[in-house]
Every structure is written in structure tokens, then in C-alpha cells.
Write a structure and sequence with these properties.
74 residues; alpha+beta; 4-stranded mixed beta sheet; 3 helices; 4 strands; 35% helix; globular
Length: 74
């Protein structure tokens, strides 16, 4: 399962979740503020942060990387 670390009223967070929904990719939403130290340790300072099962991670709305998830490349 994919983790999406999200913040309240975050448009890129909503867009990321919608894109995952459209592609039928399972994910769970976690509060970025509650996991801020972990996210900073990964080098991220803005939401959303997506972390895949394979350990890949990125921040922001990245439809290109979401497409790779569906194709099984990530």
C-alpha cells in the first residue's frame, strides 16, 4: 500500500488522491504534521509526500510518477 502524507486544505494533496483513485491504486492518507520529523528525514518539506512500498518517495503532485505506479514500474 502507498502512504500519502497530506495536509489540510492542500490542493496538490487532493489532486494526488484523486489521481490514485482514478487509477485504482490503493493508498492510505496520513497527517503530514504528525509525521513531520520522518518526512524531513526523507528530505521533504511540503505536502503531499508519497511513499511507495518499494521505498520510492516524492513530494508534490506528480502524475508522471503515479502513472508509473500503475504500470508497476515504481
Amino acid at each position: 500500500m502507498i502512504d500519502v502524507y497530506s495536509a489540510p486544505n492542500c490542493q496538490p494533496c487532493r489532486m494526488t488522491c484523486r489521481a490514485l483513485d482514478r487509477r485504482g491504486i490503493a493508498y492510505r492518507v496520513l497527517d503530514a504534521a504528525e509525521h513531520a520529523e520522518y518526512l524531513r528525514s526523507l528530505g521533504h518539506q511540503s505536502a503531499p509526500v508519497v511513499v511507495t512500498q518499494g521505498g520510492q518517495h516524492w513530494s508534490g503532485f506528480r502524475p508522471d510518477l503515479i502513472a508509473q505506479l500503475q504500470e508497476g514500474q515504481a
